Amino acid sequence: xxxxxxxxxxxxxxxxxxxxxxxxxxxxxxxxxxxxxxxxxxxxxxxxxxxxxxxxxxxxxxxxxxxxxxxxxxxxxxxxxxxxxxxxxxxxxxxxxxxxxxxxxxxxxxxxxxxxxxxxxxxxxxxxxxxxxxxxxxxxxxxxxxxxxxxxxxxxxxxxxxxxxxxxxxxxxxxxxxxxxxxxxxxxxxxxxxxxxxxxxxxxxxxxxxxxxxxxxxxxxxxxxxxxxxxxxxxxxxxxxxxxxxxxxxxxxxxxxxxxxxxxxxxxxxxxxxxxxxxxxxxxxxxxxxxxxxxxxxxxxxxxxxxxxxxxxxxxxxx
Amino acid sequence: xxxxxxxxxxxxxxxxxxxxxxxxxxxxxxxxxxxxxxxxxxxxxxxxxxxxxxxxxxxxxxxxxxxxxxxxxxxxxxxxxxxxxxxxxxxxxxxxxxxxxxxxxxxxxxxxxxxxxxxxxxxxxxxxxxxxxxxxxxxxxxxxxxxxxxxxxxxxxxxxxxxxxxx
Lengths: 319, 167
What we know:
The complex is a heterodimer. Chain A has helices spanning 26-43, 68-79, 100-109, 124-131, 149-163, 181-192, 222-226, 250-257, 261-264, 287-290, 297-317, and strands at residues 57-62, 83-88, 114-119, 137-143, 170-174, 197-201, 217-219, 231-234, 272-274. By secondary structure, chain A is α/β, with parallel strands linked by helices. Chain A has two domains: 26-148 and 302-317, Rossmann fold (3-Layer(aba) Sandwich); 149-297, Rossmann fold (3-Layer(aba) Sandwich). In chain A, the strands form two sheets. Chain A has a five-stranded parallel β-sheet with strand order 7-6-5-8-9. In chain A, strands 2-1-3-4 form a four-stranded parallel β-sheet, sandwiched between helices. Chain B is an alpha/beta fold. Chain B has four helices and seven strands. In chain B, the strands form two sheets. Chain B has a five-stranded parallel β-sheet with strand order 2-1-3-4-5. In chain B, α4 links the parallel β3 and β4. The longest helix of chain B has 12 residues, at 9-20. Chain B is globular and about 40 Å long. Classes of the chains: A alpha/beta, B alpha/beta. Chain A binds chain B through residues 14, 31, 34-35, 37-38, 40-42, 45-47, 49-52, 313-314, 316-319, and chain B through 58, 60-62, 66, 69-71, 73-79, 107-108, 110-113.
């Protein structure tokens, strides 16, 4: 469809689909963060709505269950005055045997303007983006182990909100990197935005082989990895994605890699703690930390709405 | 092509300030439209010695040309640091032309509350209105050909000046 080699960009180099933070120029990442900043103001007003996407039909197309992400996309779309249609496809068409592309073609025939896609298969949003008409935009809301770009972007927004300058930060991503699409989206965005020292911390069984190639420093010891970091990004232990034995037990994981106040004390005193949710308290994070003064986990949720508003409005405005 | 002579910006601003002075109270809310109008609001707020801090409006999320033009690259956050509900407001912009920006600004303002009144101050009124909108306070009226644009600039020292550009 496009001459450009990056399937996310149109001929003018503008964002047409949001599929991954990988390969997005820093300029586009910053545009999204700046636009989201303006939407934060909107969501604090008496009327939390702007008329920007009035008359647009946005389909939440969830082939994999999710409550929070779907809800935040829905709120974001409604605050832009779009019409939102929620489809939990795993319980309807797919059960009847319809293919993903047939489902999408049918919805496109209903004059859809945008698809928000969540799928357990990596690459499904790419497949959809390749097959929809040029006037339809696709946002990846999480595909397999591959990417979850709006989560990565809201994490960038949160870090920027508290720490301002990416180029002076030491950032640690902790936990189950292997199964985490969030981690991949974070790593690409942090790298592009110029974070000079990025660490991943986890047991060998939960880190992808050759993860160093993404430009990160690998630690298996939490105490060493957290030393003097500015930002701690916890990952959820992906129980439902774990087939086979990657770990002896959740209790064992907590002992070595769970974030407790003692371990957090090794980071800088003003370090912030992020978590993409939903949290497994007592597995990857202790309640004292999750609810403590350095936690920015609830602001992440609030900023997530502004980020999704920004992405939708930038995409909808680009031909 | 004839060169349009531009009026002196400081003189226009002084004239605009004096026009507005009898019509404002300490509680009047000034709201400047990004970017030129916001600079003007800052100056007017100081020169008119208003008590209420001035507000800034970026109307990007309310524009009627979003379908054609998309979102501009850099949207600034709107900031209205006072209660809009029940207040007399004056919108400030550098150049009044089609009136579409003012329409967008009024729509946005009503999402903050129901003001007692809204008036409009513009440094330049260049005619060419496409909506039933008029300014109550005007620095100068200037007829310009459609392909010509006029905009306010601010230099590093904070000095304001008008500049002509071609489409």
